[in-house]
Amino acid sequence: MGRIIFIQNIIGGLETGSLYALAALGVVLIYRVSDVTNFAQGEMAMFSTFVTFTVWTYSRAAGYSYPYLIAFFSALIFSAVFGYLIERVFIRPTTESSLLGKMIVTFGLILIVNGSASAIFGTDSHYLQRAVGGTIIISNLVIRPHSFFVIFLALVIMGVLFYMIKYTMFGVAIRATAQDRETARLMGVNTIKVTAFTWIMATIMGAMAGLMIAPATNVSTGMMADVHLKSFIAAVLGGFTSFVGPVIGGLIIGVMDNLVGYYISTNWQTVIVYGILILILIFKPYGLFGTRPQKKV
Amino acid sequence: MIKRTMQVLAVLLVLTLAMGTTILAVEQGVTDDSITVGSVGVTSGPAAFIGIPYYEGIEAYFKSVNAAEGIRGRKIELIQRDDEFDPAQARDHIEALIYDEEVFAIVGQLGTPGVISSAGLVQEAGIPSVYFGSGAAELTELGENFFPVQPNYVYEGMIMAKYAVEHFEAESIAVLYQNDEVGIDGIEGIEKGLSEMGREELMSDDAAISYAPTRTDFTAQIQQVMVEDPDLLFIFGLSQTASLIIRTMEDFGLDIPMLTTYSNADVSFLDTIEPAETAPNVIENLHIMAWLEVDEEGMEPMEEAMAEFYPDSTINSYTMAGWVAGETFVAGLRAVEGELTWENYLVAMDTLHFTEGMAPEISYQPGVREGVTHMAVLRVVEVNGSYEFEQVTEFQEF
């Protein structure tokens, strides 16, 4: 029984941690290209999830065969357009602004996106189905296939990003833009396109994260608040300069949270977990997989 | 000539002082034809689904009173401010309502964090504050100008313990409680109730399991409940987390009776669970406390008012709570003898015994501010593919 409980808590932690990981990857992508921490990533994900929910609801009501798939692909298309618009309207005009200024813009975006979502979709909380339904019980262990789908998705996205940045010409353009925007532009890199494309990709990732998270939080204007905060912590723990780091960081937070909650105290769960994370960061200030930022010359 | 001028000035001075005295005699927020009251609560953001119908309920009641000549010729006007469920905003709004808008009373302030954060201001000003959309127990001890109506969570915890023993006949209990004012008051009440009944052995120390209000993963908590293997599980938390707990119970096949707080006694709570898809096996084990006892006849005035003033809105338990807030405040106004001043209103409320409204009984005595003390247990039942509540016990006191 004790071993089953231990494994169950680890499985549960991996499930939740993968949600943090998924949410963190979009933040890290934008950071790596532009040094900007997009504090509105969670709210953008929420907005895309509301669009998905709306399409899903209408598709079900209309009796279409695969309402979830229709909603899923609609979310991808919408979030691509949404990401581009955000970049074009709010981010690009601040290209010459300081980093702090850009980050303040993303704070402003939180209010704009959240307020718009409330006005358009209302403030109720809605159920959205899991991508993969049901539960599987193996030797008294409860396994939710949806969670493994989320872990799989996070790993695939991580792998794609890693490959793209390291082995493709576009990845080279991204790295060059991140290193020195002006020099990259002089070398023929279309830095405007690179930046726009990274925002599009990050918004799509946010939409996917929102879709996977919604079954655990319901769809509401506040659905991403806690997950978004923990995804930032996952990114810091794993290292903001790495794609592997946030995934590992998210999984560590999820697992540690459950083990501390079960074996030590549910009352002190949060305090202990984040206390340990701070200790780790004292010894690894750039995160478990992060590297010391190089000064641009 | 000078003497005459002095006489005129003296008369003018007397008249001015007399007018001044008259003006001072009328309480703030009260004119010959209006009584202005204020309220603060959430009407935007994730918790707006509570505040919007709640304030419609208050407004619908005031509008129906105003349509019937008001209170002694005065119409009631409500100034409502949105605090977005943020206690700091709640405090600022309450301060502005008391000192800038100069309202006569605070009516139906909504949300425990905001209520608690601004209680000191209300206490200091001495302004009447009637009905709180909160079950915080400390509201019963804040002073003579506070008139809570909803049962407080400590008392609710006590009466839940009573039902656990008498209705559920449980031999062991576990509690999942939200680690904030709501859940901590609740667990205190459950322990107190068991203690007063001499049944402390029903709940072990390990069976009181907390969780953070923002939590989304309940694996550790549900594992602990499964180890305790209780006959009955109390869920002392608000709708967002309670719905996730119920889904997790379904995933883990934890099929035991559950009893949750009256704050979740609304079909919108069931909508957030979506029982048919996420909890078909455990949902009919869900029981909920209730404090409003209304038959179809009792609902009629509210339904008529809502149809007239908010024809597009759906009536739910939050609308009903708002309606009760309006009823309680107006019951106090009707009981005032003499001028409408804070002092006279507090005297009237201090001995109020109101039984004609939607709540079974609202009464106060000097120093006693318990609010409603009669509660019943509802159960979720499936009717033609949808889920609703069915009353399974009588309304009882602890």
Can you offer a commentary on this structure?
- The complex is a heterodimer of chains A (297) and B (398).
- Chain A has a domain at 22-223.
- Chain A is 74% helix and 2% strand.
- Chain A contains 11 helices and 2 strands.
- Chain A has a two-stranded antiparallel ribbon with strand order 1-2.
- Chain A is globular and about 65 Å long.
- The model of chain A has no long low-confidence stretch (mean pLDDT 87).
- With 398 residues, chain B is α/β, with parallel strands linked by helices.
- Chain B has 2 domains: 34-151 and 295-363, 3-Layer(aba) Sandwich (Rossmann fold), CATH 3.40.50; 153-290 and 376-391, Rossmann fold, CATH 3.40.50.
- Chain B has helices at residues 2-25, 48-67, 87-99, 112-125, 153-166, 181-196, 219-228, 239-251, 267-273, 275-278, 296-309, 317-335, 342-350; strands at 34-41, 75-82, 105-110, 129-133, 146-147, 173-178, 208-211, 232-236, 258-260, 286-290, 353-354, 362-363, 376-383, 386-391.
- In chain B, strand 1 (34-41), helix 2 and strand 2 form a beta-alpha-beta unit.
- The radius of gyration of chain B is 24 Å and the shape is globular.
- Residues 16-25 of chain B have low confidence and may be disordered.
- Chains A and B meet through helix 1, helix 8, helix 9 and helix 10 of A and helix 2, strand 7, helix 7, helix 8 and helix 9 of B.
Structural class of chain B: alpha/beta
Helix-strand string of chain A: HHHHEEHHHHHHH
- Largest pleated sheet of chain A: 2 strands, antiparallel
Report the mean per-residue pLDDT of chain B as an integer: 89
Strand content of chain B: 15-25%
**Can you tell me the overall shape of chain B?**
globular
